[in-house]
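thread from #wetlab-drylab

HS: before we spend reagent money on co-crystallization trials with adenosine-5'-triphosphate, can we at least see a predicted complex? here's what I'd submit
DV: go for it
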Amino acid sequence: METKIKVENLNFYYGNNRALSNINMDIYKNKITAFIGPSGCGKSTFLRTINRMNEFIENTRVEGKILIDGEDIYSKKVDPVELRRRVGMVFQRPNPFPKTIYENIVYGLKKNGVKNKEILNEVVDTTLKSVALYEEVKDKIHKSALELSGGQQQRLCIARTIAMQPDVILFDEPTSALDPISTMKIEELLLELKNDYTIIIVTHSMQQAARISDYTAFFLNGEVIEFDETNKIFSNPRDKRTEDYITGRFG
Ligand SMILES: Nc1ncnc2c1ncn2[C@@H]1O[C@H](COP(=O)(O)OP(=O)(O)OP(=O)(O)O)[C@@H](O)[C@H]1O
């Protein structure tokens, strides 16, 4: 098993408020890692430290290290824009641009100067196929993305992320705004995508974590209480607090 992301002694502060304390974790390549825990325990904060999205929030500070493929992403040599291309992110609410399906997918590539129509068309086809949206939208790729259902919009947002050829994709509660069938389709998609990407998902649904993740980290008050293979976390947790949470005693 290959470590893709190594987190060492990570602390994170909003002003004087410490939101993450001494996080140490290895995240493995081509696996799905789930972050679970009660509201406000720091799951989303931690996710945002992995592609430096936290830097958009004023008066915040990081201590410690996050290494991706051995490189410290907070080093001065790392360009945060390039980092966010390598570490894509999909959010809770599908957020397509108010543009066509086609333009949504090629947006980032065009911004990076790719103009060749054949290449762009090819990327649109392959990414729509890889998110299992091609058949549903092939006749309307020049129509507005906002005409799609919520679940289709979320798959389009995943296609838009994939178009940038990331190695890691961060998902922040990607199905919490979706119906059960759309949720199932996204879960199936994540299981496919892990063959090509390293995936981290924040989820409020323990069933979802149990269904799709290989590893699970349980967070409480900004600390990782337990991190292990998902089936161990759910069948035989080491820490009483993990057990209390997964059996529904709090949270
Ligand atoms: N932009 C912000 N400014 C100040 N404090 C913040 C900000 N975002 C989060 N926090 C604080 O950091 C802590 C962790 O929040 P975070 O959103 O990471 O938790 P979470 O586990 O993802 O919660 P949820 O499951 O409800 O999304 C909370 O105490 C929260 O109030």
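DV: Residues 14, 19, 37, 39-45, 57 surround adenosine-5'-triphosphate (CB under 6 Å).
HS: ok that's useful, forwarding to the group
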